[in-house]
Amino acid sequence: MLFYTIKRLGLAILIVCLAMLMLLSAIHLVPGDPAGIALGPRATPEMRAEFRALMGMDQPFFMQYFRFLGNVITGDLGVDVWSRRPVRTMIGEQLPHTIALAMTGLGWAIVLGIPMGCYSAVHRNSVLDKLTGVLSVGCIAIPSFIVGLYALLLFAVELKIFPAIGAGDAGDIRDQLVHLVLPGLAVGLGWVGYLARFVRTSMLEVMGENHIRMARAYGLSNRRITYIYALKLAILPTVALLGVGVGSLISGAVFAEIIFARPGIGKMVVDAVNTRNYPIVMGGVLVTTMLFALSTLISDLIAAWLDPRIRQGL
Amino acid sequence: MNDRDNTVLAVRDLSVDFLTGRGTVRALRHVDLTVPDNRVVGIVGESGCGKSTLINCVLRLLAANAVVADSSSVVFKGRDVLAMSPADLRGIRGKEISMVFQDPMTALNPVISIGTQMTDILYRLDMSMADKRRLATDMLGQVGIPDPARRLADYPHQFSGGMRQRICIAMALMMNPGLLIADEPTTALDVTLEAQIIHLMKDLCARFGCSMLFVSHNLGLIAELCDEVVVMYAGEVVEQGEVHDLFHRAQHPYTRMLLDCDPARIEEKRRDLPTISGSVPDLIDLPRGCIFAPRCPQRYAPCSDTAPATYDVNAVHQARCFKVRDA
Predict the structure, then answer these.
(1) Alpha-carbon distances of B124 from B91, B127, B269, rounded to whole Å
(2) CB contact under 8 A, A217 and B61
(3) What is the DSSP letter of B304?
(4) With an 8 Å Cβ cutoff, is B115 touching chain A?
(5) Interchain CB contact of B63 with A (< 8 Å)
(6) CATH node for A95-263
(7) Quick count: other Cβ atoms within 10 Å of Cβ B63?
(8) How far apart are CA B162 and CA B191, in angstroms?
(9) Closest by Cβ to A217, choosing from B99, B110, B124
(10) Which residues in A lie closer than 8 A to residue B91 (C-beta atoms)?
């Protein structure tokens, strides 16, 4: 397991380094001079040169890359072009909100989606199975911003059960949690549907395997067969899917952050793109990439913990 | 065949249909079978003859589209398995009747350790986990797994195919069942292992005092291992009897042809292996008379119109063929 963890960690670092290379190339591939775009048409050549020097763009590409890499390792993500505040501090302020939102969405997906999928597989072709089928496809089909808007209208404006906007008072955990419920649902509802369908399919596949028939032949209880013998295997593809899914939950968070006027990385990056604030864009995207690499790493480790064949490198 | 007092399993008039999109597949028709105490009964027949349907029916492991006829009964030690509640059925499974499956590579759960899978079977026993593990270790030792105590923590993929089948046998005998059903337990293994596994099963069954229902298409194995043989063809029992009598005085043309096709019994040098011409009848649209008549070289007047009943060849040997009646 230790060897597998180290190997997998190395891979995660490599992914982040490659992502940084692509990120930097993307900035260079933007048509025209980034400094010109950032500063507008009326900037003097001196101002542009100063801007380029500030962002290190006067150096050759690979020098920039290694400087970027070096800076990231020391934790330096540059400064905001406009406010001159360190990007690291700004991300540090926003990141917990985005992570909390993505985790709430993930929580909704796991708490609702997995039991729905298990139930559908065990009670295949029952009325409830067909109903969950329709519901899941509905959940997948509705875009998260629509869910967000309607949840906002229904639960916050009409019923007044949950607060409408903001992230809650700093330091008041309960208030912050209450503020997470609706945006979390908006972000996670599509994934509830995905998981319900996905878990159902893999459960049905596993339930048809020989060893399940053998477990039945030995008189094990239905509960033990379903939740230990079958689910432990059937959950493996879902774990892998969720590792990738966290990435889409984070990008889906942008809409929820805008609709519910919540602070967060997504909203910060969108604002920064509009003002061509490259250090923030790069910092935000880099941190998102790292989160993505981290979540796939975690999902791979969970899969290895569940499946001895992966653990032993087979 | 009378239901004697020392009968472990008595299958009577068992008929099973499968409802499919193409029509009703009449997989088993009026099957009678008896497994006496401490005896090994072999079921032989080609693929699709209903062997697996029969044994799966004994533990009620049939697919959801299977329909068992109302007149059928599967009596295990005086209780009809087909009429049991799910709770009673669970009480029988693995404890009174256990099963060794065909393919040891897929029969064990790949993500649960051998030790857990073995001790899980013992859930009915009121003993500590340490005692259960001791029992599991002991069983693994008996089937010839080296260093059994350490290997309890291992997973199926860490064992070879032969080892896995040994583990399955250990699991099957752990609750000391009255009947062991083996569904072609050596088909997926290579020939050198076959003899080892068969001897192991025979030894252990004798030691544990358990009867065995052994399914195979390998006539040599059946002859070596079994006391009684049941020959099945297209969902019917065509001939059954004491092993020596049946192999030496086979009456049903199908049994004879099956014996002639066994490569191990061919003595003269020849270029091609003998086969039974024609193919297995469609189980959706059955022929009117004898099920084997379309392929039978010895068929005569009554065969294509009326289905034969089972006739006694002698006290220990019956065949479903008009030739036996008319002999």
Answers:
(1) 9, 9, 57
(2) yes
(3) G
(4) no
(5) no
(6) 1.10.3720.10
(7) 10
(8) 11
(9) B99
(10) 219
Are B155 and A221 within 8 A, CB to CB? no
Segment A33-39 long-range contacts (CB within 8 Å, at least 24 positions apart): A34/A276, A34/A278, A37/A276, A38/A81, A38/A276, A38/A277, A38/A278
Per-residue pLDDT of chain B (327 residues; tens, 9 = 90+): 444 468 999 999 999 999 998 899 999 999 999 999 989 999 998 888 889 899 999 999 888 889 999 999 999 999 999 999 989 999 899 899 999 998 888 999 999 999 999 999 999 889 999 999 999 999 999 998 999 999 999 999 999 988 999 999 999 999 889 999 999 888 878 888 888 888 888 888 888 889 999 998 888 888 888 999 999 999 999 999 999 999 999 999 999 998 888 777 777 777 777 888 888 888 888 888 899 998 898 888 888 888 899 999 999 999 999 988 887
CB contact under 8 A, A210 and B111: no
List the domain boundaries for chain A. 1-84+267-302, 95-263
Task: Kindly list the residues of chain A whose beta carbon comes within 8 Å of any beta carbon in chain B.
Answer: 209-211, 213-221, 224, 228-229, 232-233, 236, 306-309, 312, 314
H runs (alpha helix) in A30-113: 34-39, 45-54, 61-73, 87-108
Contacts of A70 (CB under 8 A, 6+ apart): none
Task: Give the minimum alpha-carbon distance from B12 to chain A in angstroms, rounded to a whole number.
Answer: 22
CATH 3.40.50.300 fits B7-96+177-326, yes or no: yes
Count CB-CB contacts under 10 A for residue A121.
23
B157 → chain A, closest CA residue:
A309
What is the C-alpha separation between A118 and A114, in angstroms, rounded? Answer: 6
Please give, rounded to a whole number of angstroms, the shortest distance from the CA of A29 to a CA of chain B. 48
Q: Do B90 and A232 touch (CB under 8 A)?
A: no
Instruction: Name B40's Cβ contacts closer than 8 Å, sequence gap at least 6.
Output: B202, B205, B211, B212, B214, B225, B226, B227, B228
> Which pair of tokens denotes residue B247?
């192999």
Chain B residues lying within 8 Å of A210, measured CB to CB: 101, 103, 106-107
Burial of A287 (0-12, 13-18, 19+ CB in 10 A): buried
- Neighbour-count burial of B326, counting CB atoms closer than 10 A to its CB (0-12 exposed, 13-18 middle, 19+ buried): exposed
Contacts of B157 in chain A (CB under 8 A): 308-309, 312, 314
Question: Does B103 sit within 8 Å of A218, measured CB to CB?
Answer: no
Q: What is the pTM of this model?
A: 0.81
Among the partner residues B95, B98, B106, nearest to A210 by beta-carbon distance: B106
Q: Could you tell me the end-to-end alpha-carbon distance of chain A, in angstroms, rounded to an integer?
A: 12
Q: What are phi and psi of B318, to 5 degrees?
A: -130, 150
Q: Determine contact: B125 vs chain A, CB below 8 A.
A: no
